[in-house]
Write a structure and sequence with these properties.
The chain is an alpha/beta fold. It is built from 9 helices and 15 strands. The longest helix has 20 residues. The model has no long low-confidence stretch (mean pLDDT about 95).
C-alpha cells in the first residue's frame, strides 16, 4: 500500500495531478452518462458486489436521520443519493467538477430526493477538505481511497472534520486488488492508480492519528450458494473462507473516532418500557394523565436530540368503540430528562380529544423516526374514555 511513508513528495504530487486529470476527463465523456446515472445498478455483476457491500456499510455506520454525511470522492454522487433518501444531510466532495455536475444532474432527476436537507456539492483540491473542524457525523467512501497516495494526510483531514463519536465507512479495494481483472482494466484503459488497501497498516496509522479503533465487516462472495439438499453438511468455515477471499479485492471496514456505539435511542438496542403507574381520567373533552414509566431495556431514552429523530415522547393512539384505529399519531408529550436503563420517568399532562369522541385512548412511547415501543414488546396502557 502506497502512503507518504514509502513515496517521495514528487511522486505524490505527480500522481495527484494525474489522477485529477484522469477523473475530470472520464466524467466529461457524455457517453458514460447512462452508466453513471444507474449506479450501483450499472451492471449485473457489479451491482451484486456493490449491494452486498452497501448493506454492510449502512449497517455499520450507525446512522440517524438528520446526520451530516460527507461522501468523499463522490464521483457521480450515487452514494450521496442513497444517503439523502435515508434522511441524511449530504456533502458530496470531489476533485472533479465534471463529476459533481453529474451528481447535481442525478439529484435533479429524482423527485424522491429530499431537497429540504440542502445537499451540497463541493469541489476541493484533493489535499485540504474545505469544511470546518468537527462539522460532519459520518464519512462514506466508495472505491476512491485506493486511488490516492496521500492516505495519511487525508486521514488527518478526516479526523479534523469528524465530530466526536464519528465513523468513517470504507467500501473499497482489498489487499490484493491490484492483481484483479478490474484493476488491470482500469490501469490499462485509463492509466489510473490502482493501489491496494492494507487494513493492518491503516489500523496502525489511524491509531497514531487519534482514532479509537478499526472495525472490519466480512461477507462471503455474492455468488456463493449451496445446494438445498446438503447445505447443512458443508464445513462451517467455508463461508468464512469465502469472506476472507472476497475481502482480498472487496474490503469493507470502519475507522472510528470516540465511541459511537453507546446504546441510546439514536442507536437503539433493547428498547422496552414498563408503565408502572398510571392515573388517567376524562374531564369533558380532555383526558388528564399522570404516567410513570420504567426503562427495563438496555438503551438510554433521549429527551432531546439535534436531529429530532431518536427523541422519545409519550404518545397516544385513539380507537373507536370497536377498537378500530382512529388516529395513530394523535399526540406527543416530551420527556423532561433522559431516562437511563433501570430508571423511571414521570409525566403529568392533558390531551384534548376530538369533538364528540367516544372510544379508547392508548398510551405508548415513541422513538421518533424509528418505532413505537409497542412494536418492540412494550405492554401499553389503554383506557376507555
Amino acid at each position: 500500500m502506497l502512503t507518504e511513508k514509502n513515496t517521495t513528495q514528487q511522486m505524490i504530487d505527480d500522481c495527484f495531478k494525474k489522477e485529477m486529470a484522469i477523473e475530470e476527463e472520464y466524467f466529461k465523456r457524455t457517453e458514460g452518462m447512462p452508466h453513471w446515472l444507474k449506479k450501483p445498478f450499472s451492471g449485473i455483476e457489479e451491482s451484486a458486489s456493490y449491494c452486498i457491500q452497501l448493506g454492510r456499510l449502512i449497517g455499520g455506520l450507525h446512522l440517524a436521520r438528520g446526520m451530516t454525511v460527507l461522501d468523499w470522492g463522490a464521483g457521480s454522487c450515487w452514494l450521496s443519493e442513497i444517503m439523502n433518501k435515508l434522511g441524511m444531510k449530504t456533502i458530496s466532495l470531489d476533485s472533479s467538477q465534471s463529476a459533481l455536475d453529474v451528481g447535481k444532474y442525478l439529484f435533479s432527476l429524482d423527485k424522491r430526493i429530499d431537497m429540504s436537507l440542502n445537499p451540497e456539492f463541493v469541489y476541493y483540491d484533493g489535499k485540504t477538505i474545505p469544511l470546518p473542524d468537527h462539522s460532519v457525523d459520518r464519512i462514506v467512501i466508495s472505491w476512491a481511497f485506493h486511488h490516492i497516495i496521500n492516505k495519511i494526510g487525508m486521514l488527518k483531514e478526516f479526523y479534523r472534520i469528524l465530530r466526536q463519536d464519528g465513523i468513517i465507512g470504507f467500501m473499497d479495494a482489498g489487499v490484493e486488488y491490484d492483481k484483479s481483472p478490474q484493476a488491470l482494466h482500469e490501469r490499462e484503459t485509463f492509466g489510473a492508480l490502482e493501489d491496494n488497501l492494507n487494513i493492518e497498516e491503516l489500523r496502525a496509522i489511524s491509531k497514531e492519528l487519534g482514532f479509537s479503533k478499526l472495525l472490519r465487516s466480512l461477507s462471503p462472495h455474492p455468488e456463493m450458494v449451496f445446494e438445498f439438499e446438503n447445505y447443512a453438511e458443508c464445513p462451517k468455515d467455508v463461508i468464512f473462507d469465502s469472506a476472507l477471499e472476497f475481502a482480498k479485492t472487496h474490503e469493507l471496514f470502519f475507522i472510528v473516532k470516540g465511541n459511537p456505539y453507546q446504546k441510546t435511542t439514536l442507536f437503539p438496542g433493547n428498547t422496552v418500557a414498563d408503565f408502572v403507574m398510571k392515573d388517567i381520567e376524562r374531564k369533558g373533552d380532555h383526558v388528564n394523565a399522570t404516567i410513570s414509566v420504567k426503562n427495563i431495556g438496555d438503551t438510554t431514552w433521549l429527551a432531546k436530540t439535534e436531529q429530532y429523530s431518536g427523541t422519545v415522547f409519550i404518545g397516544c393512539h385513539l380507537y373507536d368503540q370497536n377498537r378500530n384505529l382512529v388516529a395513530l399519531d394523535y399526540s406527543r408529550e416530551a420527556l423532561d430528562k433522559d431516562c437511563h436503563p433501570d430508571h423511571m420517568v414521570a409525566k403529568t399532562f392533558s390531551v384534548k380529544l376530538p369533538d364528540g369522541f367516544s372510544g379508547f385512548i392508548e398510551f405508548d412511547l415513541v422513538n421518533e423516526g424509528y418505532f413505537w415501543f409497542k412494536q418492540k414488546g412494550t405492554k401499553t396502557v389503554m383506557k376507555e374514555v
